[in-house]
């Protein structure tokens, strides 16, 4: 299945089971998407996600919004 080269159809479920995902096509232009991405990246305080695995603190590369 090629997700991005087919005509958008919100009535087609893209998941084979256990959920629903519908593709509605492009929402923003590339310029708008780049603007929002840069704005969110630069105006929200981000920090690396953390997990405790087998009692050891692991700091991941995944960025999450900084908790207050």
How many structural domains in the coordinates? 1
Topology order in helix (H) and strand (E) letters: HEE
From the helix content, strand content and strand pairing, which structural class follows? Answer: alpha+beta
Q: How many extended strands?
A: 2
Note poorly predicted spans: none
How many helices?
Answer: 1
Chain-averaged pLDDT: 84
Radius of gyration over C-alpha positions, nearest whole angstrom: 18 Å
- Give the distance, in angstroms, between the N- and C-terminal Cα atoms: 42 Å
Helix content: 10-25%
Brief summary:
With 68 residues, the protein is of the alpha+beta class. The protein has one helix spanning 30-43; strands at residues 46-53, 56-65. It has 1 helix and 2 strands.
Can you characterise this structure?
With 68 residues, the protein is of the alpha+beta class. The protein has one domain. The chain has one helix and two strands, in the order αββ. The chain has one helix spanning 30-43, and strands at 46-53, 56-65. A hairpin with a 2-residue loop joins β1 and β2 (56-65). The longest helix has 14 residues, at 30-43.
Ordered list of secondary-structure elements with their pairings:
Layout (H helix, E strand, L loop, with lengths): L29 H14 L2 E8 L2 E10 L3
Antiparallel strand pairs: 1-2
């Amino acid at each position: 299945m090629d997700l991005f080269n087919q005509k958008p159809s919100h009535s087609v479920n893209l998941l084979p089971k256990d959920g629903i995902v519908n593709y509605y096509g492009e929402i923003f232009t590339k310029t708008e998407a780049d603007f929002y991405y840069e704005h969110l990246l630069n105006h929200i305080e981000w920090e690396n996600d953390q997990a405790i695995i087998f009692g050891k603190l692991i700091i991941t590369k995944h960025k999450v919004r900084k908790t207050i």
